[in-house]
Amino acid sequence: MLLVPLSRMMLTVQPTHLVFLLVFLSGSRGYQDDLVLVDHGYEGLVVAISDKVPQQSCNDVLSGLKNVLEEFSQQLFTTTSGMAYLRDVTVALPSSWKMDPMSCSPWAPLVATATPINGHIHVTAAPHPLFGSQPWVQQSQGCGHPGDYIQLGSDLLRATSTNASVTRAAKLLVREWTKFRWGIFDEGGHHDDPLYPLTISDPVTNAERPNTCHNKSNHGAFCSMEDHTPEAPNKHNALCDGRPAWDIISKSKDFSNQRSAGSNSTNIIPTFKFIKPALPHIVLIVEDTAVMNLQRRWEFIRKAVRRLIVYDIPDDTHIGVVVFNSVATTVAPVSQMDSESDVRELVGSSLPRNPSRIPESHKCLLCGLQEAVRVLDDVAGGMQGGTIILLTTGTGNTPEEEMNEIIQLTLQKSLKIEVILYPMSESHGSIRADSRLQSLAARSHGSTLTVMDEGVGNDSKLYMMASLMDALLATMRHSYPLSSSNVPLVVHSQSYPGGIESIAKGSFTLDESFGPDARFAIYYYDLNHVGNKIQLVTPSGKNMSSVNIQKEDGDANAIFVNILQAERGKWSYQLENRATSHQGLHIQVTSTENNKQHISVQVWTSKSSSNNNHTNISLPVIIYAELKDDDVPILNARVVAKLKRLGTNITGSNFTPLYIDLFDNGFGDPDITKGDGVYSRYLSNLPHLPGQSSHYELSVFADDNNKQASKPIQNPNLFKPNKELVCCGSRVNFENVVTVPSFQRSEVYGVLHMKNDADNKDIFPPNRILDLQAAVNITSLVVTLQWTAPGDDYDWGRANNYEAVLATSWSDALLFIGEDIGGLPVPLSVGTEQSVEVIIEHYEQTLYIALKAKDEANNYGNSSNVVSIWIPLPPTTTISPTSTESSISAGIHSEPLGHGLTQPVRVAGFNFSDMSVIIGIVAGFVLVIFIIALICFVSVVRSKKRTQEQNNKKIKISNSGFAKHGSVDMEVDGSQDSIDSTVKDSEAISKKGRSISPTYSWTPSKLLQEHEQRISITSGPTTDSSDYLPHYQTLHDNFPDVTLTGSCTSSQTPVTTRSDPPAYQVAYNVEEYPAHPYSYNPSYSHEELPPYTPQGPSSQSSQASTSYIHELNSQPIGLPYQQDNNSYTYGIEDTNVPTLMYTTYPNDHSHDSPAPKSKTGPPVAQKPHVGPIMSGSNMAFEPKRRNVTQV
Question: What pTM was computed for the model?
Answer without folding.
Answer: 0.71
